[in-house]
Design a protein that fits this description.
Elements (H helix, E strand, L loop, with lengths): L1 E3 L2 E3 L1 E4 H6 L1 H9 L4 E5 L2 E6 L34 H12 L1
Parallel strand pairs: 3-4
Antiparallel strand pairs: 1-2, 4-5
Length: 94
Amino acid sequence: MTIYGYHMVMKQTGVAELKARLSEFLRAVRNGESITILDRHTPIAKMIPIQTVKLRVRKPAAGAPSPNRVPLPPPLKLKMDIVRLLLEERQNER
């Protein structure tokens, strides 16, 4: 990203230049820049960095049952055929 005064300007490149300097553009994206790709001066795509989410696994609370000991809810008592409903829903999608 180029900063000009108080404004940030996104990098832009044409398809031919992107093909010729792909590694350079990928490094820029890896460093947090966004790049707009142009085809005959028309924006067609944008390369942006992937946002990674870091998950933190924590220990269960004291006294909590282990996952294989958690009681399951009772099965539902329905007066309809679930398989028939599923087949109907899938037929409507076709």
